[in-house]
Amino acid sequence: FHSGEREEKCIIEDVPSDTLVIGNYKVQRWDIHKQEFLESAPGLGMFVTVTTPSAEVLLSKLYGPQGTFSFTSYLSGEHIICLQSNSTRFVALAGSKLRIHLDIRVGEHFLDESVVQAKDQVNEVNIRLEHLIEQIHHISKEQNYEREREEKFRKTSEETNSNILWWAIVQTLILISIGIWQIKSLRDFFISKKLV
Question: Keyword Transmembrane helix: yes or no (predicted)?
Answer without folding.
Answer: yes
